[in-house]
Design goal:
Blueprint: H1 4-10, E1 15-19, H2 26-42, E2 46-48, H3 50-53, H4 64-75, E3 80-84, H5 90-101, E4 105-109, E5 115-116
Parallel strand pairs: 1-2, 1-3, 3-4
Antiparallel strand pairs: 4-5
Helix pairs in contact: 4-5
Length: 119
Amino acid sequence: PIKSSAASDVYKRQLVYICSPYSGDIECNTEKARRYSRFAADADTIPIAPHLLFPQFLSEETERELAIFMDLVLLGKCEQLWVFGGEVSDGMRREIGRAKQKNMTIRYFTEDMEETECR
């Protein structure tokens, strides 16, 4: 069981949206998103990575716009957007644009999870 002080610390964790490529090398990009999510969890946040969830039941080929709509709804519930990797896909651009519209904190990281300057 979680100790009461540890449990209360969990409630202080911010929701962080994980923004990284999905399309292209889907297997490799999915593994990277898992690593990025673990990195965020280890940084005392609650990572939200829709591209690890929605492909389980939505088709990238036929339901991409629905998936992006759902992504943006979840993004709206988060306090921060963490962008990973050097490549910014079209879907990532849309997520970054929405985060900027909402004046969210946006943090950028390399593929090796080292924080970089804003892009």
